[in-house]
Amino acid sequence: MRTTFSPLVEADDLQRNRFLMAARAAAEAAGLAKPIAQSLAAALRELESNIHEHSARAASGILAFQARPPLFEFVVADSGVGVLATLRDDKEFANLTDHGLAMRAALQDNVSRYGRGSGRGNGFRDLFLGLAHLNADLRFRSGDHALLISGPQAELKTARLSQKAQFQGFLAAARCQSMMPQSATHH
């Protein structure tokens, strides 16, 4: 089993790149195909970038992954302003008051604090592409809602939204299971 944690406070570009390369290699070692492992590393990079760009508290951000055949798991979290506050920066979403609806919107392509026409807001595409053919569980938390997506075809349209206790910031967690037979993952 391999577990790695990276606080963003002290990380420089070299450390971030090493972390992402280690995550990709760990995902492959857990039995995920190389293109899937690359998509998940790209999703981690985008989620990490979102902390710097959107949270208003980048120093609070963390990234972590754990791999053990046939599982690869990661979490990216911060204690920043959350998805609702971030989206409300754009006039299109200024009247949005529900954390759950804000999270569902933010996970769609072309939705960002810069507006739908900005050419931004495509960061979750890598995550969903990487998980398209895996048995995966995705959990997102922000404000007073959690959004769960699980199953062999992880897509936003199958998401379950539920109200929870207040959570400061944003959390994205993924648990991916390789479709590789268990015996093939052991050397």
Automatic annotation (TrEMBL):
Domain of life: Bacteria
InterPro entries: HATPase_dom
Record Pfam families: HATPase_c_2
Residue ranges of every copy of the Histidine kinase/HSP90-like ATPase domain listed in the record: 17-121
Name used for this protein in its record: Histidine kinase/HSP90-like ATPase domain-containing protein
Organism of derivation: Hypericibacter terrae
Top-level taxonomy: Bacteria, Pseudomonadati, Pseudomonadota, Alphaproteobacteria, Rhodospirillales
